[in-house]
Amino acid sequence: MTDKHALIQPDRDQSATPIHVVDKAGLDDFLKGLPGAARAALAAQKFSAGPFEHAILPNGEDWSVVTGVANASELGTWCLARLGESLPAGTYRVANADSGPALFGWAAGQYRFDRYRAEPSEEGPRVLLTKAAAAISPALAEVAATALVRDMVNTPAEDMGPAQLEAEVARVAKAHKAEIKVTSGDALEQGYPMVHAVGRAAARHHAPRLLELTWGDPKHPKLAIVGKGVCFDSGGLDIKPASGMALMKKDMGGAAHALALAQLVMQHHLKVRLHLLIPAVENAIAGNAFRPGDVLKSRAGISVEIGNTDAEGRLVLGDALTRAGEEEPELVIDFATLTGAARVAVGPDLPALFTRRDETAAEMLAAGEAASDPCWRLPLYDGYREYLKSDIADLNNSGSNGFAGASVGALFLDRFVPVGTDWAHFDTFAWRPAAKPGRPKGGDALGLRAAWGLLKGRYG
Fold it and tell me: Is residue 391 within 8 Å of 308, Cβ to Cβ?
């Protein structure tokens, strides 16, 4: 995308095109203050001050912009996002409101993924000036984290396999002087047997691995962030249909969210001991693929019967969550594109949230609302644990019926998180099937800023 640091700048009274924000309640008063030619121009453009509407106001050789918002006295995250996408390149300022709350949407709307285009977009930046100087750096950090998720999810699996995922973690680690550890080969088979089993059928250059990043003072509270890094999911021997495989480059979206959240933690120097874990695999098909009916060992010592090879994300997360728990963290947050059932339950826009503690859920939901990154809590209902019973092992990785699939997936993960540990699990889509202002179609961060808001509140 365009250099994010150029998109929002301090307002030092430099030359800029004015943006007037107007809501429906204030439209009549706004019109009364305009000369007749300007009123006629708005009428010709059929401007009614609806959200995301905008029109151009001529003023001799100059011009300004008027845009409709839901509430002109309190701008929201996305209210200027369409302007950030569609106005001509140039410098702008909001003339009659505090632009601070809208900075993120303005910049996020200028994201473009053009890595594979012969002629990448060369449109210049749309710069927004703001008097809220203290809000610029936090907004740009969240824009950068969101862009990281979008870039990683949008990149096809051949260019975002386990090795490339490792390279992304190493890049972020180097930028923040964090330590990185990679477990692969025989050590992976012995220490993380479910990660190895899921990933062993992949081609050699997509070999499985467990990625760990550590950062921060060991004396500070321990925070574990875990992300599902299934770089492509064929479904394994329980193969997906073509339609189900079409978007499976995004099955590492949980890893992208986890890495972006870790980046925010380190960039803002939160007083935590950070432990990032990403099991990076490709769920491929070959003669050595794990099979339906196999019983896998796990790092936790729990045996798992394979009811469905397409329920592989919970397997690799099980080993990673076990490793996270060995450090006795105060809080564990994981992100995963875990179940289609979550999308059936809450749709593409809302990541399903599961927590053990009501207060953690309340914090996360409130943080999501404050950041315009809403999530929705679903139950960790003990009564559904019986759906994961196996006749020959401790657990089955697939529910015994079609009920409550998102909750059953979360209950599987719950077995690998130490009892009593504060834990939040996001079953996120990591994809936007249709564009909205500031949110282009394609990979997207859903739940990232909600989790970041909780962490800022606790450790900032």
Answer: no
pTM beyond 0.85: the answer is yes
The helices-and-strands tally (H runs, E runs) of the chain is: 15, 20
Q: What is the chain's Cα-based Rg?
A: 24
Please report, as a single letter, which amino acid is at residue 278.
I
Beta strand 352-355 with 422-427 is antiparallel
Q: Class of the 141-459 domain? A: alpha beta
Dist. CA 44–CA 46, nearest whole Å? 5
Q: Name the token pair of 458.
A: 């606790």
Contact predicate 432/440, CB 8 Å: yes
- Tens of pLDDT, residues 276-314: 999 999 999 999 999 999 999 999 999 999 999 999 999
- Which alpha helices (DSSP H) does 287-332 contain, by range? 313-325
Residues labelled catalytic:
240, 314
Query: In the structure, what pLDDT confidence band is assigned to residue 1 with cuts at 50, 70 and 90?
Result: very low
Q: In this structure, is the dihedral angle defined by the CA atoms of residues 410, 411, 417 and 423, taken in order, positive or negative?
A: positive
Task: Please give the Cα distance from 187 to 219 (Å, whole number).
Answer: 29
210, 322 in Cβ contact below 8 A? no
Quick one: fold of 4-131? Leucine Aminopeptidase, subunit E; domain 1 (3.40.220)
Collapsed DSSP state (helix, strand, coil) of residue 222: strand
